[in-house]
Specification:
The complex is a heterodimer of chains A (about 180) and B (about 650). Chain A has about 180 residues and is α/β, with parallel strands linked by helices. Chain A contains 5 helices and 7 strands. In chain B, about 50% of the residues are buried. The chains are: A alpha/beta (about 180), B alpha+beta (about 650).
C-alpha cells in the first residue's frame, strides 16, 4: 500500500470527528418544521367543553389580536407540567384559547380547578377531529396564531419555563 | 459501604491500567521481561472491575435508594430480574459494564494467549490497558455510577413498564460483548504493528476473539431485529435507523476481518489489510457506542444528550482511532506481503469478499452520517431512508451472496480446475427458482426475485464445500463455515419472500366485519376491555380462517398510567409457511376499530437464518479452540476456513 492510501483513513477520521463535534456543539433542533406554519387555521366549530366557558371556532382566532392555541387534555400528564407556564403567559397578558381532546366536562373542571385555568375559550374535541386537521399528533401542543388566523409557529410537546421569552417575542413579532 | 467499595475497586483498576501501560512502554524500549508482571496486573485489573460491577448489581438488587443511579432507574416494587437488568439499562451502568468486559477480556488475553511472541503480547496488553484507562477516566470523571444522594429518597423513579422487557434486558449486553470482543483484535493489531510482528501466529491468536465477537454481534442484531418486529407493531424487521446501523457497521467490518484473517493465518498474505480491518472493526464499535450514548442522531433509540459526556467519548474515539491510524500509516509500509496468489484462487475470492463488504460498510456509513454532514455544510435537513440503503446496498449484497457460494470451492494459491462444473446443481436450482417465481408470481419486483434465485443457488452451493471428502471427517471449522453460509441463504430467502409476497391490510372494522389479507379471511368478533398487572387493555378477538384452518388471535392495546403511555401489543401466529401479524388500533366515532393485518410468508426464515449463521460461527469457534488444544504447531497447509 502506498503512503497516500494509508493516509486516507486519517483524513476520513478527521472529517468524522469534525462532523460529530459540530453536532455536539450545536445539538439538533428538535423542533419539527411544521407543515401548518404560515397556513390559516382550518375551519372548525367546537362546542363548549365545560359549563360557563364558551366553545371555540376558527373565527375566534382571527380577531386581530395574536393568541396562543393550546391543545391539551385533563388525562395528559405533561399538560400538568405545562400548566404553570401557561398561567405565567396569561399573567403577562397573552390571550390563550384551548382545545380539549377526548375529554369529559367533569374531568376537565377538576383539572382546571387544580392546576389553574389560563384559557379564554375551550372547545371540546371529542374525537380528535380538529386536532388531526391542525396537524397535531399528540397533547400538549401549542400554536402561535397571528391576528388574521394564520399559524406562525407550532410547539410540539409541553412548553417549559425557557420557552416563555421566545413565545412572548413571537407574539410581539406577528402583531 | 457497598457503593464505596465499588468505587474504590474502580479507582484501583484504573491505577493498575496505568501501571500496565508503563510496563508496555518498558517492554518496547528494552528487552526486560515484563510479560509476567503484565499478565498478573491484567488479571487483577479484570478482577477489580468484576468486583465493581458486582457491587453495582448488589446496590440494585438491594434497591439502595441512597445511590443516585438506583434512585433514578429502579423502584422497590420492580420484579427482581428487572432490578438487576436496571443496573446496565442506563448510561453509567452500561459504561461500567463496557469497561468491565474490556478489562476481563484483557485478563483472558493475559491468561490464555500463548500464540504471539511475548513482545507483541506485552504491546497488546498495553494497548488494552490504554483503552480501559480512557473509559475508567470517563466513568470516574463524568459518569460515576456510585454517586450518592443525601438524604436517601424513600423510593425510586424507575418503574417504566415499557422498559421491563426481557429483550431490552439482554439485547444490550450481547452487543456490548461483541463490541468489546473486537477490542482484543484491535489491541493485538496495535501490538503487532508496534513490534512489526504481523504474521500468521498473530492471526491465529486474533481469530477466536473475532469469531466470538462476530457470533455475539450476529445474535445481538438478530434478536434486536425480532424485538423491533414484534414490539413496535409496524410489521418491519429492519428500519435502517441510525442505532441499528451502528450495530450493523461493526458486524460488516468484523465479517470482513473474519475472512481476511483466515488468509493471513493460512497464507501469511493480506497483512496490512487485515490490520486495517481489525482497527476499523473496533473503531466502528466505538462509533456505535458514541452514536447511541451521545444521542446526537435522531433515532427511536436516542438517549438524552449530555454535551460533556459526548465530548469525552468523542475525544476518546479520536485519540484511540487516530493513534491506531497514524501507527498504521507509519508502520504499514514495513509490512512485507506474504505468499503470492493467482487471480483465480481462494485468496482472491476472499479479497473480493472483503472489497464488497467494505463497500457495503461504506454505503451504510455514508447513509447514516450523510444527513449530519449536509446539515453541517448547508444547514439543510434531510433524512436518508430505506430506499437508499436497499437500492444501493441490496444488489451488492446479492452479488456477495453469489460469491459466497463460489469462494469456498476455490483452492488456495491457484485454482486450475474449472469450478463451474461443480456448480451445476446450484445453477439448476437457481434457474428453477427463477422460472417458478416468473410463472407463479409474475408481478414481483426485480430485487426480491433475484433474492429468491440467489438464495436457492447459495443454499445448494454452500453445502458443496463438504463434498469430495468424508463429511464426518471434515473439521468443525469447515462445518461452521458451511452452516453459516447456508444460514445466509435462509435469511436471504426470508427477506426476499417477505418483500415479494407480504400482503398488508389497514382498515376500520366493526364487530362482525370480515377483512381479507393474503389467503386469510379475518373476522373481528369483539373488542373487550381487560385489566393487566399495571395497565388496562382493550383486547380484540379475531378469528382468522384459511380453508378449513381456523385460528384465534387477540391483539391488545395497553394503556399505562405511570407514565401515561399507550402501546400496541401485536398478536402474531407463526405457521410453517409464514406469520399472520395483527395489531389493534384506535376506535373511530362510529364504533369501528382500526385493524392492521399482515400476512408474511416465510418471514421467520430471516431470524432463523440469523440464528443459523451464529450457530455456524459458534461451531467454527469451537473447532478453532479444540484444534488448538490438539496441535501446537501451526499447519501451513491448512486448507479450510
Amino acid at each position: 500500500m502506498s503512503r497516500g492510501l494509508r493516509l486516507i483513513p486519517i483524513v476520513l477520521l478527521v472529517w468524522l470527528v469534525i462532523g460529530l463535534a459540530w453536532r455536539l456543539v450545536k445539538p439538533a433542533d428538535t423542533a419539527i418544521p411544521s407543515q401548518m406554519v404560515e397556513r390559516p387555521v382550518p375551519r372548525f366549530q367546537l362546542p363548549a367543553a365545560i359549563d360557563g366557558k364558551p366553545g371555540l371556532a376558527s373565527a375566534d382566532l382571527a380577531t386581530g389580536q395574536p393568541r396562543l392555541l393550546n391543545i391539551f387534555a385533563s388525562w395528559c400528564v405533561p399538560c400538568v407540567g405545562e400548566a404553570p407556564v401557561l398561567r405565567e403567559l396569561q399573567r403577562r397578558g397573552v390571550a390563550i384559547d384551548a382545545i380539549a381532546v377526548r375529554d369529559t366536562p367533569e374531568a376537565l373542571t377538576a383539572f382546571l380547578a387544580r392546576y389553574g385555568d389560563p384559557y379564554e375559550r375551550i372547545g371540546a374535541d371529542r374525537q380528535s377531529a380538529v386536532q388531526i386537521a391542525l396537524g397535531s399528533a399528540g397533547v400538549p401542543e401549542t400554536f402561535v396564531v397571528d391576528g388574521k388566523g394564520v399559524i406562525r409557529r407550532q410547539y410540539i410537546g409541553p412548553l417549559n419555563a425557557s420557552n416563555i421569552a421566545g413565545v412572548l417575542r413571537e407574539l410581539e413579532q406577528v402583531r | 459501604m457497598i457503593a464505596e467499595a465499588g468505587l474504590a475497586a474502580l479507582w484501583l483498576a484504573a491505577g493498575l491500567a496505568a501501571y500496565q501501560f508503563v510496563l508496555m512502554l518498558l517492554a518496547l524500549r528494552s528487552r526486560i521481561d515484563v510479560v509476567r508482571p503484565m499478565r498478573a496486573v491484567a488479571l487483577v485489573q479484570g478482577a477489580l472491575t468484576l468486583i465493581a460491577f458486582a457491587m453495582l448489581l448488589l446496590v440494585f438488587a438491594r434497591s439502595d435508594m441512597s445511590v443516585k443511579l438506583v434512585f433514578e432507574n429502579s423502584h422497590s416494587a420492580k420484579p427482581f430480574i428487572y432490578k438487576i437488568a436496571g443496573a446496565w439499562g442506563n448510561h453509567e451502568g452500561s459504561m461500567l459494564m463496557w469497561v468491565t468486559i474490556l478489562a476481563v477480556a484483557g485478563a483472558f488475553v493475559a491468561l490464555f494467549s500463548r500464540r504471539t511472541s511475548e513482545r507483541t503480547l506485552a504491546a497488546a496488553l498495553g494497548s488494552q490497558a490504554v483503552l480501559a484507562l480512557g473509559f475508567y477516566a470517563f466513568l470516574l470523571v463524568a459518569s460515576n455510577p456510585f454517586a450518592r444522594l443525601f438524604p436517601a429518597p424513600p423510593d425510586g423513579q424507575g418503574l417504566n413498564p415499557l422498559l421491563q422487557d426481557p429483550g431490552l434486558a439482554f439485547h444490550p449486553p450481547t452487543l456490548y460483548l461483541g463490541y468489546v470482543g473486537l477490542s482484543v483484535a484491535f489491541s493485538l493489531a496495535v501490538g503487532a504493528l508496534l513490534t512489526g510482528e504481523v504474521d500468521s501466529r498473530l492471526a491465529r491468536a486474533m481469530r477466536p476473539w473475532v469469531l466470538a465477537a462476530w457470533v455475539l454481534l450476529t445474535l445481538g442484531i438478530t434478536a434486536g431485529s425480532y424485538w423491533a418486529y414484534y414490539e413496535l407493531g409496524w410489521g418491519g424487521y429492519w428500519f435502517w435507523d441510525p442505532v441499528e446501523n451502528a450495530s450493523l457497521m461493526p458486524w460488516l467490518a468484523a465479517t470482513a476481518l473474519l475472512h481476511s484473517i483466515n488468509v493471513l493465518a493460512a497464507r501469511g498474505a493480506l497483512k496490512a489489510w487485515t490490520m486495517m480491518l481489525a482497527v476499523i472493526a473496533f473503531s466502528m464499535s466505538m462509533v456505535g457506542t458514541f452514536l447511541v450514548r451521545s444521542g446526537i442522531l435522531t433515532s427511536v433509540h436516542a438517549f438524552a444528550i449530555d454535551p460533556q459526556r459526548g465530548t469525552f467519548l468523542l475525544a476518546l474515539l479520536t485519540i484511540y482511532v487516530g493513534a491506531a491510524f497514524v501507527l498504521f500509516a507509519v508502520r504499514g509500509a514495513t509490512l512485507k506481503e506474504g505468499a503470492p496468489f493467482d487471480l483465480v484462487s481462494r485468496e482472491s475470492g476472499l479479497v473480493v469478499n472483503n472489497l464488497l463488504l467494505s463497500v457495503i460498510l461504506g454505503i451504510v456509513f455514508l447513509g447514516t452520517l450523510y444527513p449530519l454532514f449536509v446539515e453541517a455544510v448547508s444547514g439543510e435537513k434531510l433524512s436518508v431512508g430505506a430506499p437508499y440503503f436497499n437500492s444501493v446496498a441490496g444488489p451488492l449484497a446479492l452479488l456477495l451472496a453469489v460469491l459466497v457460494g463460489v469462494g469456498p470451492l476455490l483452492r488456495w494459491r491457484s485454482e486450475r480446475r474449472p469450478v463451474f462444473g461443480k456448480l451445476k446443481l446450484p445453477g439448476l436450482l437457481a434457474a428453477s427458482a427463477l422460472t417458478i417465481t416468473i410463472l407463479l408470481a409474475p408481478d414481483i419486483h426485480l430485487l426480491p426475485r433475484a433474492g429468491l434465485t440467489v438464495a436457492a443457488f447459495l443454499a445448494a452451493a454452500s453445502v458443496l464445500a463438504l463434498t469430495g471428502r468424508n463429511p464426518l471427517r471434515a473439521p468443525l471449522a469447515t462445518w461452521g463455515m458451511v452452516i453459516a453460509h447456508f444460514g445466509i441463504a435462509v435469511a436471504l430467502a426470508g427477506m426476499a419472500a417477505n418483500a415479494a409476497f407480504s400482503s398488508e391490510r389497514l382498515a376500520v372494522a366493526k364487530p362482525g366485519d370480515v377483512l381479507a389479507v393474503g389467503p386469510w379471511q379475518v373476522q373481528l368478533q369483539d373488542v373487550t376491555p381487560t385489566a393487566g398487572k399495571n395497565y388496562t387493555a382493550l383486547e380484540a378477538e379475531l378469528r382468522a380462517a384459511r380453508g378449513d384452518q381456523v385460528i384465534a388471535l387477540n391483539p391488545q392495546t395497553h394503556y399505562y398510567s405511570d407514565p401515561v403511555t399507550e402501546t400496541n401489543e401485536s398478536a402474531i401466529r407463526t405457521l410453517w409457511n409464514g406469520q399472520l401479524y395483527t395489531v389493534l388500533g384506535r376506535s373511530d366515532a362510529s364504533g369501528g376499530w382500526q385493524l392492521r393485518l399482515w400476512w408474511k410468508p416465510f418471514v421467520t426464515l430471516i431470524w432463523a437464518g440469523g440464528a443459523i449463521i451464529a450457530l455456524g460461527g459458534a461451531l467454527a469457534l469451537l473447532g478453532r479452540l479444540v484444534r488448538r488444544r490438539r496441535r501446537r504447531e501451526p499447519d501451513w497447509r491448512e486448507r479450510y476456513i
